Amino acid sequence: MALTSSVKPNFIAPVYFGRMDATQPSSLPAVPADARPSIVARGFRANQGALSQRHWVRNDPCFTAFFNALSAVFPHGETFMIKSLMPWVDRVPAGLKAQVEAFIEQEAGHAREHGAMNKALVGAGYDIEPLDRKIRGFVAFFQDASDMVKLTATMCIEHFTAIIAAELLENRYHLDGVEDEMRELWLWHAVEEVEHKGVAYDVWKHATKDWNPVKRYLWRSFFMLAVTTSFFINRSLGQIELLRQDGYGPLWSLKNIMQAGFGSGGIGRNVLGPWAAFFRPGFHPWDKDDRLLLAGGEADLAGIAAKRAGYGKALAAEPQTNIGPMTAAA
Ligand SMILES: [Fe+2]
Ligand SMILES: [Fe+2]
User: Fold this and answer.
1) How far is 284 from 288, CA to CA, in rounded Å?
2) Ligand 2 centre and the CA of 162: distance in Å?
């Protein structure tokens, strides 16, 4: 049967670009505000012990370096985002204010618990000071910036953390072969990042509600490009530094971290689409419905807790393996 123009399926528009109409009201995300999950700081405490092995992600130095390089910058990075949102707590409507307060509580927990993980990295022999210096430099760059500049930078960074977190929840193979304590830390962080993914954006939308739409679009697009450049360069340099401490040369490291990140199934490759979605006019983080991902992450966390409590392997979360085990280092 021939398709009429009114029933033609949309074969070409990917999910994130399903509504390219620039006139789409930005106040109508796929998951409206009253249907989004509650933002709850779970008060999680990470294991304060030593790493079970130096390369704790499948004994692979490159995948391990990716997670370690992120963790090394979280304490100062999360603190920057908390401080960027604090000036807006009393400038937004009551409902959003409660979300900002919950956001701050969650991020404070992330800074604290990644501090604990970072101690374990130092205990394993890593010097994370060079990575810490980089993030302190980033924060210092914004020291005298306006509240609006810091809010916009934070809103863009939050998109980064949200899409990486959603990727970890969607494709569990990234944490395959990782011991429960470490999986729990990263799953917990991922769940809370996705949970509050719309908060900084909604504050920014409120703060810029009187702006010309073109100025709004250009402002956020410019900041996203700048934040992306900084994130990509500095996190890559961080991984190369950690791999140098493992005894690998910079060229080997660069080649292998790019392969790990942007090869088939890599985190960087998989988040390219969600990253680009930010540039769609009318974008909102909750255009993408991540509620099932959150439920899956919560179930995994419950499985780990049940296993720890002695309920046996049957109740433990079994990681989904969408593709075969990934190995970056030859
Ligand atoms: Fe966080
Ligand atoms: Fe966050």
Assistant:
1) 8
2) 7
Secondary structure of 227-239 as H, E, C letters: HHHHHHHHHHHHH
For residue 73, give the ligand nearest its CA.
Answer: 1
What's the pTM value of the predicted model, to 2 decimals? 0.85
CA of 2 to the centre of ligand 1 (A): 51
* pLDDT over 80 (residue 312): no
**pLDDT tens digits for 149-185?**
999 999 999 999 999 999 999 999 999 999 999 999 9
- Give me ligand 1 centre to Cα 188, in Å: 10
Domains of the chain (ranges plus CATH)? 3-7+38-311 (1.10.620)
> What distance in angstroms lies between residue 312's CA and the mean position of ligand 1's atoms?
31
Residue 6 alpha carbon to ligand 1 centre in Å: 44
Closest ligand, as measured to the CA of 197: 2
Q: How far is the CA of 104 from the centre of ligand 2 (A)?
A: 9
- CA 314 to mean position of chain CA atoms: 30
Q: How far apart are the first and last CA of the chain?
A: 52
Output the pLDDT for position 325: 40
**Residue range 21-57, pLDDT digits in tens:** 333 444 567 888 888 888 999 988 877 777 889 999 9
Ligand 2 mean position, distance from CA 311 (Å): 32
Interatomic CA distance for residues 219 and 206, integer angstroms: 15
Q: What is the DSSP letter of 87?
A: G
